[in-house]
Design brief:
Elements: E1 21-24, H1 31-48, E2 55-59, H2 65-78, E3 83-86, H3 92-102, E4 106-110, E5 119-125, H4 134-146, H5 157-162, E6 166-169, H6 172-180, H7 185-189, E7 194-198, H8 207-211, E8 218-221, H9 243-250, E9 256-260, E10 267-270, E11 276-277, H10 279-293, E12 300-303, H11 309-317, E13 321-324, H12 328-338, E14 342-345, E15 349-352, H13 361-377, H14 383-394, E16 398-405, H15 411-424, E17 429-430, E18 433-440, E19 446-451, E20 456-461, E21 467-474, H16 477-493
Parallel strand pairs: 2-3, 2-4, 3-6, 7-8, 7-9, 12-13, 12-14
Antiparallel strand pairs: 1-5, 4-5, 9-10, 10-11, 14-15, 16-21, 17-18, 18-19, 19-20, 20-21
Length: 495
């Protein structure tokens, strides 16, 4: 066992953003800093008196993720905290699933989700399986801050494994059974459909084909091999990252495309013509599915950057809608508090009360497949017609987001400057329409403005990357593009 000792070199501050801590590998993301994060988790578990319940650790397909996971495990094992360590790269939500099934103290996932291939990250899951909320994360950050300048104590993995403190696990069989409690997989397997799946080289590769194997449905998967470079794209299931997949769909022979991000906690879809079904439309489709086809009437939770279709569907079907800040560390706890049937965020993350209060891209994609099958049975087909039907019910949603990248070193100063300027000199009109409502986000990381036709513009500073996100949902494509251009000008004027 290695004792805690003083460190000569200064250590960077570690702050958990909207979804964990992320940084560039070899710069701030080092084995030492991963151990510091793990020490924060270890102290939290000790303070909660839940040492015997153990901690679940998973990892994705990024560069050296398995070795970073082992380093985190060695810190927990030095405190005699039992560890369930994934035997292979897994989707992030499988860590949540294992935490719930094992009644573990919490979970750790080594992943940077959709970030560039140069990054890696450290996510924490609460005992409920949801993303650790602000209170837990503040506790972790305090431990990390208070022990700056010290090396965390470690215990060699092999030594702890020999002592019976380490269990290696593969979650597939248990997860398949778990999904089967709320979704008829045999029915999905029996569908006479051809499905193209795009996992973007991530840890979701193989999951949907295996879950649907043995039936009539034909599942073809692109980019299923491990590639820590992610083919040179960010592994986020939006354009242009998925353009190759859309091109294959446009060539014919498939009924739909189902998409995943790098750690498979985000979902996406495309229709039979290769038209991208954007993230806000997916939120509307999933909510419509639960309301119309499953007859559920529990609340729905959505983030400030989610679609206005959520509110309209809530009014039509008589269900409450709750809004939170961006990030599942806010959505998950609100789902638990309100007994919500669903929670979603603009990035393509969707969680379900009947499943997990955490994002699960694999499960969300399977629900989309079930929706499309059920809609075909009532005469709505193909998938493009189902999307059109959603808009007939829930109204228009012409959405787009642009990411304005900023030099990492200059980002904090730009953020501080724009937070003042956008508040003090807020626009009175956007793309020729009067602003009728404006809101400063509770998290002090952006602003949202609504115009008199119901369209909205949101400017928000990322909590995980050095970039400013500009979001628009409008009543027409032309209006969307004009508002997005105005939003970009607002940001660039302050840079």
């Amino acid at each position: 066992m290695t004792d805690t000792t003083s460190s000569a070199a200064p250590q960077p501050a570690i702050v958990f953003g909207t979804d964990g801590w992320r940084a560039r590998i070899g710069d701030e993301y080092t084995y030492e800093n991963v151990r510091r994060c793990a020490e924060g988790v270890a102290q939290y578990v000790v303070d909660q008196g839940t040492v015997k319940q153990g901690v679940v650790i998973g990892f994705d397909r990024r560069f050296s993720s398995e070795y970073f996971a082992q380093s985190a495990a060695e810190v927990l094992l030095a405190r005699d905290i039992p560890v369930a360590l994934a035997a292979l790269p897994i989707p992030t939500q499988m860590t949540s699933y294992e935490v719930v099934e094992r009644k573990a103290a919490c979970g750790i996932m080594i992943t940077a989700s959709h970030n560039p291939w140069t990054d890696n990250g450290f996510k924490v899951k609460s005992p409920s399986g949801a993303a650790a909320g602000p209170a837990i994360l503040a506790t972790l950050e305090k431990t990390i801050r208070d022990r700056a300048g010290q090396h965390p104590m470690t215990r060699p993995l092999a030594d702890a494994e020999a002592a019976g403190l380490v269990e290696r696990f593969d979650p597939f069989d248990g997860y398949r059974e778990y999904v089967g409690r709320t979704l008829d997989l045999d029915r999905l397997r029996a569908a006479d459909l051809s499905v193209l799946v795009e996992p973007l080289w991530g840890s979701g590769a193989g999951w949907i084909p295996r879950l649907l194997a043995g039936g009539k449905v034909k599942v073809t998967e692109l980019h299923s091999e491990r590639n820590p470079w992610f083919g040179g794209v960010n592994p986020e299931p939006i354009r242009p990252n998925i353009d190759e997949c859309l091109g294959v769909l446009a060539g014919g022979g498939y009924d739909m495309g189902l998409l995943l991000d790098g750690d498979a906690d985000r979902a996406g879809a495309a229709d039979e013509k290769g038209t991208f079904i954007h993230q806000l439309e997916v939120m509307g489709l999933l909510m419509y599915y639960l309301l119309e086809h499953r007859g559920l009437r529990q609340p729905v939770v959505s983030t400030i950057n989610e679609t206005s279709m959520v509110g309209r569907l809530g009014e039509i079907y008589g269900v409450p809608v709750y809004e939170t800040a961006v990030g599942f560390k806010y959505v998950g706890p609100k789902m638990i508090e309100t007994g919500a049937m669903m929670g979603g965020e603009e990035s393509g993350g969707y969680g379900f009360g009947m499943h997990l209060p955490e994002r699960d891209g694999v499960y969300a994609d399977l629900l989309l497949l079930d929706l499309f099958i059920k809609e075909r049975e009532v005469g709505r087909w193909p998938v493009s017609a189902i999307v059109e039907h959603l808009h007939q019910i829930a109204g228009p949603s012409f959405y787009l987001r642009t990411d304005i990248h900023v030099d990492r070193a200059a980002y904090p100063a730009l953020k501080a400057k724009l937070l003042v300027e956008l508040r003090d000199r807020a626009p009175s009109d956007i793309a020729g329409q009067d602003v009728v409502k404006s809101v400063a986000l509770d998290t002090n990381d952006g602003f949202k403005w609504w115009t008199d036709d119901g369209s909205w513009l949101l400017v928000r500073f990322s909590g995980t990357e050095p970039l400013v996100r500009v979001y628009v949902e409008a009543t027409s494509a032309e209006r969307r593009d004009a508002m997005l251009a105005d939003g970009g000008r607002l940001v660039r004027a302050g840079s």
